UniProtKB/TrEMBL annotation:
Organism (species): Microvirga subterranea
Membrane-spanning parts: 281-300, 324-349, 361-384, 404-421, 427-451, 485-507, 513-533, 563-587, 599-624, 657-676, 682-711
GO molecular function (one): mechanosensitive monoatomic ion channel activity
UniProt protein name: Small-conductance mechanosensitive channel
Bias (Low complexity): 66-81
Lineage: Bacteria, Pseudomonadati, Pseudomonadota, Alphaproteobacteria, Hyphomicrobiales
Alphabetical list of InterPro entries matching this protein: DUF3772 (IPR022249), LSM_dom_sf (IPR010920), MS_channel_C (IPR049278), MscS-like_channel (IPR052702), MscS_beta-dom_sf (IPR023408), MscS_channel_2nd (IPR006685), MscS_channel_C_sf (IPR011066), MscS_channel_TM-2 (IPR011014)
Length: 892
């Protein structure tokens, strides 16, 4: 058997192919002699095939010569007869065809993945920077600011892929599931379409998964940066040094004094040298003008504010809006000019460059401190108004207002002095003991000032209680908890200073002042929001009147909108205040906003994704569907159904059925938007079935009974029914119960299940014909025939009494003194029975008096035994409730 390697005859094939190429190159462009061309082409192809065959045979012969057959192992084998050849073995199975290469990605997907690759490279670089060394807080914050836009871009890529993925899945679902083993194969067109759609789904899904992976990496980096910042903040805050009472600290400070003096002289020399180099007449003019403007703004604000904002002391009870506007004006006019003056002076010093850069910190701290003192004074004056008791926003005594004002200004001055001195120590690179002593002394002085204020307030409260007599515990005393927290803060600051945690003590003082300012601003802004947001829509205000006239909303609705808007404004202000309070602790708004974003756009708990935005949108969809249902019901009630010939009961059934369909449809749409599948709804229904079995059985029973009432309509709206001891007209058939209005205008609430399973008498089930019974007693000596004729003629003469059945008079009974007659007649509408009965009584009594046979006693009405219940008289008629109405078309 010859074995020819595949590459052996490759040169021959190439040679044949070259002949073919030469032939195609030399082929004439004209189509003149097609037969000759075809013959020549066929000959060339035949020649190429012969050469290939000869090459293969020669290659096989040469290989056979090089590899002769091996000699037999046993010589005796030649003597043995030749065994028949073994049957040919089964051919080896053909190798599985190679999988088709994946279809190329679309241009949009390539661009999206290129973006994700770039984000990954950037995130990897930042991750390596975090792992290499501990970065300072400024660098960490810079890294975070660089990562946050990347997170937003990655989310945009993910959101961009989501609708494409959903659309591809929807298209793929239209093809149905793949045929299983044993089922008929799908056509080639369907298989090709399925492959394309599956590839599209995989393409968008993989892109989305890549985006989520990058998003997780970025969020992990943000979390790592936050952890490092918090760790650094904690280390710096709880760094321990020598306590303020430690002798070593003071000895080190004394030893560092000569060095500090030399540093101060050097700084002064550098400052004078720079002044000589950079001071010109123009610079001096600019500085002088800026300082003059700053002083004018700072001093002039004290006289400007009372002229612009007048707090009339003669007004003992000014309006709340006037007080709030005055407080806002005092705050702005007291703080803004001082801040503007400090800013102008700072711009002038910074542009003139007359001080070394290290002293610019001191100048900046001093200017900021001056503006801070003015702001604190203006804030306290705006809220407490020490000189105008009737204009205060918080009810405190005059002494307390003055005390808080003096304390606040003094504390602000001490803090500014401490910050300026710390900046100077930083400028001259003061030794650590000097810096520690400076911060510790100012923190301790601030704590002692806090303690003195708390002591005075406690003494004031004790004096007031002694003046009021025996102690009575107040219901709410907010001053007690505030004083407790204040004393606790003072104890922490003093203990930290003495224990060597100077950074913690200084931080606590700063936080106490910062939180106090935030609380004061929160009080003012909440009051402004309540007055100008909620108050503008409350009462006969101009805005409320305009909205009421243009939108048609009721005043009560506007007040509710104002309350809701004011509540939302309060919530936003409180959240902002909390963020400002937590900001110095390393908790930034971006952290909270990330959590709020996760809550709003969805977070995963197990296999369930909870999204507040989806819940809100689903609620809006349900509200829109519910509102549309009510609009349709109102249109049916007021426009469409009155134009038909349907009775009131059928109209109510149609209206109620439309309401059920609309509400159920709105609920289905809302649940569908939430992504609740049939399986999850089944689980919820199973849980509800357990509740139905225990506590909701009666509610469901009444609901089903209401549906039966609407469908079978044994009782309709407007029917006169008798249920137990109650009788009245059906006004509404609700989900759980039915409203029946009785004759005394009260409403009888009957569960729907009672109307289905109980005994109910419907007086107008088939028609509205009603029977009228008039009972007349006359003296025994009266002629019965004459009385009967009078009663019959009175009935026949009334225009609302039906001629068929004919009115009939019955001799009911005879007593010792009287004989009793009953007149039975019928009317078309049972609602007119009371009026007809009254007319008949008047007419019969008038005729009886004319014949000299007046009734011996006041007329009374009696029902037949089966009609013992009293018919309620309609409110608009005002009939006597003693008359009897019977629903019976046959004569008695």
């Amino acid at each position: 058997m010859l074995f020819i390697p595949p590459g052996f005859f490759l040169p021959c094939v190439r040679r044949a192919a070259s002949f073919r190429l030469i032939d195609s190159h030399n082929r004439p462009s004209t189509n003149g002699n097609k037969a000759d061309g075809m013959t020549n082409t066929g000959m060339r192809r035949l020649l190429g095939a012969v050469l290939v065959s000869v090459g293969m045979a020669a290659g096989g012969w040469a290989l056979a010569q090089q590899n002769p057959a091996p000699a037999p192992a046993q010589p005796s084998a030649q003597a043995q007869p030749q065994t028949p050849p073994s049957p040919p073995q089964a051919a080896a199975p053909a190798p599985a065809p190679a999988e088709a290469p994946p279809p190329p990605l679309s241009a949009d997907t390539k661009a999206a993945r290129a973006k994700l690759d770039g984000y990954k490279a950037d995130l990897d670089q930042k991750e390596r920077a975090l792992e290499g060394r501990v970065l300072p807080d400024a660098d960490l914050q810079n890294l975070r600011q660089q990562i946050e836009p990347i997170i937003a871009d990655i989310r945009a890529v993910i959101d961009e892929q989501a609708p494409k993925l959903e659309a591809s899945k929807a298209r793929l679902s239209q093809l149905g599931p793949k045929p299983k083993d044993g089922q008929p194969e799908e056509s080639a067109d369907v298989a090709r379409d399925r492959a394309e759609r599956e590839a599209a789904v995989a393409e968008f899904d993989e892109t989305q998964r890549l985006g989520r992976a990058r998003l997780v990496q970025a969020e992990q980096l943000i979390a790592k940066i936050s952890d490092q910042r918090r760790s650094g903040f904690t280390r710096a805050l709880f760094a321990r040094t020598e306590g303020l009472l430690s002798p070593d600290l003071w000895l080190d400070a004394l030893q560092a004094i000569p060095r500090e003096l030399r540093a101060q002289r050097t700084t002064l020399s550098d400052t004078l040298s720079q002044l000589e180099r950079n001071t010109t007449l123009g610079v001096l003019l600019v500085l002088g003008l800026a300082i003059g403007i700053g002083i004018a703004l700072y001093v002039g604000r004290r006289s400007l504010a009372p002229r612009v904002v007048r707090r009339d002391p003669a007004l003992t009870d000014p309006a709340r809006r006037s007080r709030l506007l005055a407080a806002l004006g005092v705050l702005l006019l007291g703080a803004v000019p001082a801040i503007a003056g400090s800013w102008i002076v700072w711009i002038a010093f910074d542009s003139s460059n007359i001080f070394p850069s290290r002293l610019e910190l001191v100048v900046g701290a001093l200017l900021r401190g001056i503006a801070f003192i003015a702001f604190v004074r203006a804030l306290i004056d705006a809220i407490l108004a020490p000189d105008h008791a009737s204009w205060r926003l918080i009810s405190v005594s005059n002494a307390s207002a003055d005390r808080i004002m003096n304390f606040s200004v003094t504390l602000a001055t001490i803090m500014v002095a401490g910050k300026v001195l710390e900046s100077f120590n930083q400028a001259i690179a003061a030794a650590l003991p000097i810096t520690v002593i400076t911060r510790a002394v100012f923190a301790l002085v601030s704590a002692l000032l806090f303690a003195e204020l708390l002591r005075r307030f406690a003494a004031r409260a004790t004096q007031e209680e002694a003046c009021l007599g025996p102690y009575v515990a107040p219901e709410v005393d907010i001053g007690g908890p505030i004083r407790t927290v204040g004393w606790l803060a003072v104890a922490i600051v003093v203990g930290s200073v003495l224990g060597g945690y100077v950074a913690l003590a200084s931080f606590m003082v700063d936080q106490a002042v910062w939180i106090s300012i935030i609380i004061a601003l929160l009080i003012l802004t909440i009051a402004l929001a309540d007055e100008f947001i909620g108050g503008s829509l409350r009462g006969p205000s101009r805005l409320a009147t305009t909205l009421q006239a243009n939108t048609g909303l009721r005043r009560r609705s506007l007040e509710q909108i104002g309350v809701l808007a004011s509540g939302v404004a309060r919530l936003c202000l409180i959240i902002m205040a909390i963020l400002l309070v937590l900001a110095p602790w390393g908790i930034e708004s971006t952290d909270l906003m990330g959590s709020l974003r996760a809550i709003f756009f969805g977070f995963t708990v197990g296999d369930v994704t909870i999204s507040l935005s989806s819940i809100l949108i689903a609620a809006l969809l349900f509200t829109a569907g519910f509102t549309l249902t009510r609009v349709i019901q109102r249109w049916l009630d007021n426009t469409f159904l009155p134009a038909t010939e349907l009775d009131a009961g059928l109209r109510n059934s149609i209206r109620t059925a439309a309401g059920y369909v609309g509400i159920i449809s709105a609920a289905v749409i809302a649940f569908t938007y939430l992504g609740l599948s049939l399986e999850r709804v089944t689980i919820v229904a199973g849980a509800l079935s357990v509740g139905i079995g225990f506590g909701l059985q009666s509610i469901v029973n009444n609901f089903i009974s209401g549906l039966i009432l609407l469908w079978e309509r044994p009782i309709r709206v407007g029917d006169l029914v008798v249920v137990g001891d109650g009788e009245g007209y059906v006004r509404r058939i609700n989900v759980r119960s039915t409203e029946i209005q009785t004759g005394d205008r009260s409403t009888l609430i009957v569960p729907n299940s009672n109307l289905i399973s109980g005994i109910v008498r419907n007086r107008v089930r088939n028609d509205r014909v009603g029977r009228v019974l008039v009972s007349i007693p006359v003296p025994r000596a009266t002629d019965p025939d004459q009385v009967a004729e009078i009663m019959r003629k009175a009935a026949l003469a009334h225009r609302e009494v039906m001629s068929e059945p004919t009115p009939r008079v019955f001799f009911k009974k005879a007593t010792e003194n009287t004989i009793d007659f009953d007149l039975v007649c019928f009317v078309d509408d049972i609602d007119a029975a009371g009026r007809v009965s009254s007319d008949l009584y008047f007419e019969i009594f008038r005729k009886l008096r004319k014949i000299g046979a007046p009734p011996p006693e006041p007329a009374s009405s009696a029902r037949e035994p089966e009609e013992a219940a009293e018919k309620p008289a309609p409110a608009e008629q005002g009939e006597d409730e003693a008359l009897t109405l019977l629903k019976d078309k046959s004569p008695a």
